[in-house]
Amino acid sequence: MIERYTLPEMGKIWTIQNRFERLLDVEKAVARAQAQLKIIPEKAARVINGLNKINVERILEIEKTTKHDVIAFVTSMAEKAGPEGRYIHFGLTSSDVLDTAVSLQIEESKNVLLEKLDVLEEVLKSFIKKHKDTLCVGRTHGMHAEPTTLGLKFAGFLAELKRNKKRVSAACTQASVVKLSGAVGTYSSLGIEVEQLVAKKLKLPTEDVATQVIPRDRHAEVFSSLALLGAGFERLAIEVRHLQRTEVGELEEGFQKGQKGSSAMPHKRNPIASENITGLARLLRGYLVAAIENVALWHERDISHSSVERVIFPDAFILAHYATDRMIQVVKNLSVNKKRMKENLDLTHGQVFSSHILLELIKKGMSREDAYALVQRHSHQLTQGLDLETSLLKDAESKKLLSKKELARIFSGVTHRKSIHKVIERVLK
Description:
Oligomer: single chain
Strand order of the largest sheet: 1-2
């Protein structure tokens, strides 16, 4: 599906064209700062800042000889600048420009991803409001536990999304720093003042202590936030997948006219989007492993991280953006089968209200042990056609403590809905 991805915003950020454009942004900011500090002539800064067009083909042609992409880029720009081109990349090392340019790309990616996550948040809020009272069974260990509502189920996913948005934003901000400390991070070719001025121009903070590169723990935190975002999506996707199973049948992904679920079985309607999201989450976790491996570089630097990052940065951000869009479509087009939810809720003949009966019996003076044993006995010995409410109404001990009206209130689910509303309101704020 990814090859048919129709959201170009994120993909564009990680193209080779944009990569070189961000490199040029850094070189321009450095030239302005150097001219301001009278390190290079003002004329040189003006010429360098007048460079706009990136000729990727020319850069790649030069790289065939240099075997070094940044040198190829600088050479290409110098060709356009004429005599003033000798001041491009003045006093810098490659990682100064490369790492700072990646910081700019991370900032761009953060903004695009957060914008898409905002859309998902609103879609979830709308779904939760619509289904805050849609009663269904809650499950633990895959077994029926207590009643809940579909709105509350999805309120949990919304709360997790909000946390993940904060993590992504904070991690990307933490990773987006300017590094212009030169070879092995000593500022021996350029003073700290240049870095400080460039940081102001690019509206980013400076790296506290760099070697020859930005410490990769900053980047690993970004991939950690994206992996957690994917895990949150997967948790929602697995809920949809389970609830769409034939035996459950409570939810179903949207199914368009003309869509087909199987080449062999015409009846199939499969949760393919949720399965796709589950797979994407696995990839995002894999990128985190690679990012953590990049943290421990040799001495002041080596280049083992470079090949990894050229893959994982574009892939992780594009996949996270794509997964968000797929999740939006899943939630927007979910079909809810309320009738089936009621049928499933009644499958255990009222057993899902056992905890509230237990509490009421305790309130009326029965010991916890005796109350538990009474409710458990009735729950486990229900005969066909008999529900827990009726069974308790026939029990002499239960009848002494609980009236028919009190039992009816418990089995109506009204107590559950009352508390659920408060939780949902808290999340929606």
